[in-house]
Amino acid sequence: MGGCGFVLRDCKRQVLGSAAGKIDQANDALYTEAVAFLKTIQLLSDWGIDNVEVESDASMLIKDVTCTDLDLSVHGILFKEIRAFSLAKFSSILFSFSPRACNEVANAVAMHGLSWCMIPKSCGRDMLQALPMFL
Predict the structure, then answer these.
(1) Distance between CA atoms of 13 and 94, rounded to whole angstroms?
(2) How far out from the chain centre does Cα 118 lie?
(3) What is the CATH number of the domain that holds 40?
(4) What is the enclosing helix (H) or strand (E) of 39?
């Protein structure tokens, strides 16, 4: 089981919102990051946002979702799904690496999402749920 979270900021780096959730089938770190990445861009699309820059501290994930070569790895189909969704739903999307030290707020939000799993009543919640603006 893993937690995921993101922080939505505008071009001036002001916080516009955040969301967090849990990933039940967290098989490995790369898979968990990729599922969180996909759920994040799906939610951004649902919110009507079509021009985004997605930062992640998972450098291998950024490499895998930006590479267009055929990926025969166990997660290759998930990376392809992220690329396909991104092309279909956004007028502009940029994926970039951000060191973990620069991503501490999103990591804290992810820990909040994971904590929902510790309360049995909330374990049935869906992946990403809006959080109050506490940032």
Answers:
(1) 16
(2) 21
(3) 3.30.420.10
(4) helix 29-46
Coil, strand or helix: which one is 48? coil
Domain count, the chain: 1
Residue 94, both tokens: 């940029």
Strand ranges (E), the chain: 2-9, 15-23, 51-56, 92-97, 129-130
CA dihedral 42, 35, 97, 9 (to 10 degrees): 40
Q: What is the pTM of this model?
A: 0.72
Task: Give pLDDT tens digits for 55-107.
Answer: 888 889 999 999 888 788 888 899 999 999 999 999 999 888 877 665 665 55
